[in-house]
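Appendix B: complex inputs.
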Amino acid sequence: QKEVEQDPGPLSVPEGAIVSLNCTYSNSAFQYFMWYRQYSRKGPELLMYTYSSGNKEDGRFTAQVDKSSKYISLFIRDSQPSDSATYLCAMSVDYKLSFGAGTTVTVRA
Amino acid sequence: DVKVTQSSRYLVKRTGEKVFLECVQDMDHENMFWYRQDPGLGLRLIYFSYDVKMKEKGDIPEGYSVSREKKERFSLILESASTNQTSMYLCAIDTVYGYTFGSGTRLTVV
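Resulting structure:
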């Protein structure tokens, strides 16, 4: 069993829809939780960073962590074609990250 | 913002060649990482370094080595390239609030 499980999709939504992405994990020692966005042929870029259970908002993005269920989510409101990318969840113990496989999202204009 | 530069975007090498991938940061962060990314497998850690001349194996170190002679530079070495090392290679640094990645090097071994 992988430490971090993420549905690879692909996910296709119309412009303006809410995008919902999820990851589950097995290692209860994970302390920090992140979401990265990766455009084609580019390196991942950090979108959201959190270390506690609950919700964190940044503009159209909301990260949700449920440590008791070992489950994290990312929501993108009012999705735009420019949000089309692969989204990777990641979590860490100390400074070492474990990544999900990534979910490819396409937002149709 | 910190910048992570990988020397090559695309590389094509022959089987058996020794390959060097370079990664340079423009700040003073201690922890640097090399990952490879393959479809369906996600990012897998090859090696990481937590200081000059210090290194530790990641999850898939076989066939690779690393060098960190200066704090800002972390090199990944493929001792004898093989076709199963065709992949996207990503360098990252730990900036406390998550990793910053380079743009990646897409290596093809023929």
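Chain A touches chain B at residues 6, 8, 32, 34, 36, 41-46, 49, 88, 90, 95-97, 99-102 (CB under 8 Å).
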